[in-house]
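Example (one chain per record):
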Amino acid sequence: LKITIPKLFITLFVPVKSVGKAFPMTNEIQILSLTKKKKKWIVETKEKKYSFHEDTVIKYYLFKDKSFTEEEWKQVLTYEAVADVMEKTLKLRSYQRRSTKEVQKFLSSKTDQPLFIEQVLMKIHQLGYLNDEKYAMEVLDYEKRHQKGPKVVFQKLQQKGLDETLINRVLLNYDDVTEQDILDEVLEKLVQKNQDQPVLKQKNIIMQKLLRDGFSQSLILEGLKKVSFLDKSANKLVLEIEKYQHRYQNLPNQERISKIIKHLMTK
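Predicted structure:
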């Protein structure tokens, strides 16, 4: 997504003397014509043509033959610059909900004008499109539905730039009982999935998976104590032996056996 901020905007926050040099206009700017083109309005003045959002046209009552002082016209251009970037920021947000920090970072990559960024953020907040607490709750609900633990939720919200106090407050909605219920469901699936492994390896695979998914180690250990593991690895063991027998078929018998045992012990 590329944003082009009008060059004129760059001078909007510098002293008036500098502005005069950057805006080589006459004392009065008069609108010569106003034409609708798709969703934008093409406004022509003696100096140049501008493309404005309808909101800008309505707010400043832009119509043919209307005149503006240089200062008034600069206000129009400022409003339009904010409206233009805000529209593109909202498009960015429409792909997925964003945190305030993410939107601020996006705007900072497009302009180094703090006031400009502040105006856009304020407008988006007023429209209700930026709400970090609501955003955090949505992330929490999503991760719980996908059976992730609270530590994963914390990490993801932290990566989005949310305040740690807010994250901890939201995580109060993910208590130990909820975590245990989700963990038990995941544990049952993992036990069924890994029965073709030796019991020791089953436990190791399951433990590592649940830790990566953000569950508490103490709850994982308690859950593992309640599980009855089945070892159905015999068939797989036979296949593994056959594979290594073929790989080391040219070795002397004793050396071949030693290598096969070594490989299988690591598994």
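Caption: Residues 1-25 have pLDDT under 50 and may be disordered.
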